[in-house]
Amino acid sequence: MAKQKKAPRPKAETPKGFRDYFGAEVTERAEMLQKIAAVYHRYGFDALESSAVETVEALGKFLPDVDRPNEGVFAWQESDEDGHGDWLALRYDLTAPLARVYAQHRNDLPTPYRRYAMGPVWRNEKPGPGRFRQFYQCDADTVGAPSVAADAEICAMLADCLEEVGIPRGDYVIRVNNRKVLNGVLEVMGLEEGAQRDAVLRTIDKFDKVGESGVRELLGKGRLDASGAYIDGVGLSDDQAAPVLAFLTSKGGDAVETLTNLRAAVGASQIGAEGVQELETIAELVAAQGYGPDRIEIDPSVVRGLGYYTGPVFEAELTFEILDEKGRKRQFGSVSGGGRYDDLVKRFTGQAVPATGVSIGVDRLLAALHAKGRTDTATEGPVVVTVMDRDRMADYQDMATELRRAGQRAEVYLGNPKNFGNQLKYADKRASPIAIIQGGDEKERGVVQIKDLILGAKIAENATLEEWKERPSQYEVPRDQMLEKVREILATYGGDDA
Amino acid sequence: MAKQKKAPRPKAETPKGFRDYFGAEVTERAEMLQKIAAVYHRYGFDALESSAVETVEALGKFLPDVDRPNEGVFAWQESDEDGHGDWLALRYDLTAPLARVYAQHRNDLPTPYRRYAMGPVWRNEKPGPGRFRQFYQCDADTVGAPSVAADAEICAMLADCLEEVGIPRGDYVIRVNNRKVLNGVLEVMGLEEGAQRDAVLRTIDKFDKVGESGVRELLGKGRLDASGAYIDGVGLSDDQAAPVLAFLTSKGGDAVETLTNLRAAVGASQIGAEGVQELETIAELVAAQGYGPDRIEIDPSVVRGLGYYTGPVFEAELTFEILDEKGRKRQFGSVSGGGRYDDLVKRFTGQAVPATGVSIGVDRLLAALHAKGRTDTATEGPVVVTVMDRDRMADYQDMATELRRAGQRAEVYLGNPKNFGNQLKYADKRASPIAIIQGGDEKERGVVQIKDLILGAKIAENATLEEWKERPSQYEVPRDQMLEKVREILATYGGDDA
Q1: In what order do the strands lie in the sheet with A474-478?
Q2: For the segment B252-293, what is each residue's pLDDT rounded down to a tens digit?
Q3: Shortest CA distance to A297 belongs to which of A420, A207, A202, A177?
Q4: CA-CA-CA-CA torsion for B438, B441, B447, B448, nearest 10 degrees?
Q5: Are B73 and B97 in contact (CB under 8 A)?
Q6: Which of A16, A125, B12, B73 can pair with A103 through a Cys bridge, CB separation 3.0 to 4.6 Å?
Q7: How does residue A272 score in pLDDT terms, banded at 50, 70 and 90?
Q8: Averaged pLDDT, B134-152
């Protein structure tokens, strides 16, 4: 009889574009989310956790990123009894689910409804370096508040969040623009809704990348891009394009000057005047709460999301420089964006509901803190109680228990204890600050050996013989003084883990 | 020209079997997860967050629930350039991904690898009342530790977790059984691996529901179930079935008696003897750490997961009674389960890797705390600053800002301020403890009105006229004493929100 062929072993891999997060990667993010949630909460926002899975119908197509309008979702069809059920999909952001939740529960929810949400979202896009198909978002939105006081509040809250997680004043700025001002400019230009207007909007969105001259070319005849390809232009004359460029470059030395420039750019347009007035009100409101232009400023060059939002648009940028992968200095850039969008709920109910909100990119924010060396580097590894005699596991567990009850992270080595060197290698891999050792001899004498692994590593690296003699890295203490000694050692490294 | 037909509005609904969580539902769970994570961390476990999406190949089929072996996953096929990519799926638990992660990263991870993970998992099963297709799991596992000291540690840790989240000693018990003992019993019975043995295992799993006599019938000729349907039995004679029943009912008055009964049940089986020895070691280890049989006990009637695990099996049960939906008293039951499974990583690497772990059902645990009235009921609503004059938003924002800076949750009413009654209704819906009021007259006089909404509600409900006179629910104070007065009022309700 032929030998049965074995099924091939499955590959131990995440799907392409997905990754795992280990240890501090998880806890640092969790701590950051907690800090942000605390600020959101203090501002009166309530937590919401909607399901990760939505019907495709409810999600709709509201991706804010005009650069990638064809972003996909992960979707599948339910198989009901007839074999054809609803199409379901993983949420691609936290805003579309909010619209569904508000429409579904609006009779039970307060109005205005201030809610925050944090959690993973999924995008079925081509993965790339540093670009994943599952990532965290951390949003706060106010639904049902027509006043720009709601936008101003969100800008102030965003500033508080950044400072709360460790970005000091001076290292960030929140820039505010307004889609209505742009609408005024387009109105003055005589651009009605339609293909040409959409093309202008898409072009403006490239302002960040191609700058003023690039936008000028793209609004006109077109432009050679960096790869050498020729990008067709919108086909406006220089005169026609002028108001758009005036708008984008109207930032002055202070808010008064900027607002004056914007008023000139929108001319007689009513919607444009309204937009400028809103920006002025936001500037006044945040200033009255102590948020000056060093923290929140009017800046018409903010274009991210301008095509998506319907009123004020805001973006938080970190202003310090970091070194990129090639060692070149560059600004860290945007970590958060948001704005007013008044159409999302209308899809469901037919009624326009004003809404404004912000999304914080926690992963980018964490990267920024790492780049500045501002993350907590406290001793996080556990004290490792080594196993010299496997029949005395109860003794070793007792030591670990005593340490834990005192709030100290601790564990007994649970691998094969035969090779003591492996136990110390394990402790090293865990970044353990201390190893506890008690062989038969020590047990008889009622003592334990306490090995200071941090000092030991330092000595091994670069200590002089004098230092070695002066401060040995291993201590013998009576068993009942173990906890005390562990605390003493850890105190010299600036903190225990309790 | 015919009028263009409008697309129908999307339904604002979660997919069937999914739900949203609001406010305290979210924050209470988050707090519970934090508390459990702190215990896991103290025991030396490291956080892991694996991706929610796995390849179907990597997930395999390892659902622990033998009752529902055909449980589905939510899966879809990637469309690559050729139109047929990998099948991907949402994780159905946190154990299968751990096996994949350990196999993938084993060269970089410490061994033993203690990890904890918490997050949603998804099951494509038929939804029912209280049964959702997305729910939270909260797991801790030790991979690469062959010793039952690892199992004992997890039982102790589970006890600590339950006490940490608010289940006092005496209200829970962790019961431990061992699959190897059952294997010994099956060996003694002469049941080789195969269909009959599997049928016996499935029958044992029903012990919780049908009890001793039910299992006896099901091992024999069969049995009428509650619905009147006849369930075929395994077909063993009473004599043949006796060892299984002896095993399931061998719990004695103390561990010594139970272990003696188990030794009798496994007879000369070597694997059985090994299993009994493991249980004895676990009992000794946890006792040495101060966990007596009031908290962790050997109990061979624990059958949940016995078909899935390969060694020790544990289950945490809450022992207090609650009233069910029909007002009948019943035990709350299981909130956590786990055990040793040595085959999961082998799928990937060909090498058996010992592993043991536990999963805590946080949603059930939260329900238990609610049933016992042990959740935090502090005043959570924000102070609401009402808007009497919409031109003075800056003043009102300033008040909210002052309160927030002092750590007090506060917000300005951001709906249409025209109808003051709506503002108070809003405050009521938000469970606000206090409303702040400042009209033009108060502004001129430099004062604010502070309305104690909790007291106001009480007075409206049942206070006598004397009480009303003695303690009015609205106070006028100078603007610069607003914060102080708010704190004073909140202090009478036992805490601010800082």
Answers
A1: A410-412, A383-385, A434-437, A447-452, A474-478
A2: 999 999 999 999 999 999 999 999 999 999 999 999 999 999
A3: A177
A4: -20
A5: no
A6: B12
A7: very high
A8: 95
**Given this model, what pLDDT does residue B102 score?**
97
- Interatomic CA distance for residues B235 and A333, integer angstroms: 72
User: Is residue A6 predicted with pLDDT exceeding 90?
Assistant: no
DSSP structural state of residue A458: H
CA distance B186 to B189: 5
pLDDT band at A70 (very low <50, low <70, confident <90, very high): very low
Query: Token digits for A106?
Result: 């609006």
Distance CA B100, CA B97 (A): 5
SS3 call for B161: helix
Comparing CA positions, the residue from B497, B150, B174, B109 lying closest to residue B354 is: B150
The residue assigned the tokens 């068993």 is A479
Among candidates A12, A394, A409 on the partner chain, residue whose Cβ is nearest the Cβ of B288: A394
Q: How many CA atoms lie within 13 A of B346 on its CB side?
A: 10
ipTM: 0.89
- Global confidence as pTM: 0.90
The SS3 call for residue B7 is coil
Tell me the nearest-neighbour CA distance from A348 into chain B, angstroms: 6
Q: Do A430 and B144 touch (CB under 8 A)?
A: no
Mutate to test the interface with B, among A11, A18, A51, A151 (most CBs of B within 10 A): A51
Per DSSP, helices labelled H in A16-61 are: 24-42, 56-59
Both structure tokens of B144: 């690469």
- Give yes or no for a contact between A488 and A406, defined as CB atoms under 8 angstroms apart: no
Let me know: does B29 contact B366? Beta carbons within 8 Å. yes
List, in sequence order, every residue forming a beta bridge with A139; answer none if it has no partner.
A117, A359
**pLDDT at residue A497, rounded to an integer:** 44
pLDDT, average across residues A107-132: 90
| A112: preceding bond cis by omega (within 30 degrees) | yes
- Paired sense of beta strands A329-340 and A312-323, if any: antiparallel
Residue whose structure tokens are 């002896």? B246
Q: What is the per-residue pLDDT across B31-77, written as a single tens digit (0 to 9) for each?
A: 999 999 999 999 999 999 999 999 988 988 644 444 443 458 888 88
User: What is the rounded CA–CA span in Å between residue A464 and residue A470?
Assistant: 10
- Residue B286, judged by CB atoms within 10 A of its CB (0-12, 13-18, 19+), counts as buried
Confidence class of residue B464 from pLDDT cuts 50, 70 and 90? low
Q: Quick check: B50 and B58 in contact, CB under 8 A?
A: no
- Residue B387: burial class (beta carbons within 10 Å; 0-12, 13-18, 19+): buried
Q: Which pLDDT score is estimated for B208?
A: 82
Cβ count within 10 A of residue A195 = 8
CB contacts under 8 A, B 363-382 vs A, are 382
Which single residue is written with the structure tokens 């430099």? B446
Domains and CATH numbers, chain B: 24-371 (3.30.930.10), 383-492 (3.40.50.800)
Question: Using CA atoms, how far apart are residues A311 and A179, in angstroms rounded to an integer?
Answer: 5
> Which stretches does DSSP call E strand in A349-483?
355-360, 383-385, 410-412, 434-437, 447-452, 474-478
Q: Which residue has the tokens 């095509």?
A: A307
What does the pLDDT read at residue B166?
Answer: 93
- For B414, the closest of A145, A290, A426 (CB atoms) is A145
Query: How much is the pLDDT for B470?
Result: 63
Where does residue B470 rank: exposed (0-12), middle (13-18), buried (19+ CB within 10 A)?
exposed
SS3 readout for B434-462? EEEECCHHHHHHCEEEEEEHHHHHHHHHH
Other CB atoms closer than 10 Å to residue B80's CB: what's the count?
Answer: 10
How far is the alpha carbon of A241 from chain B, nearest alpha carbon, in Å?
34
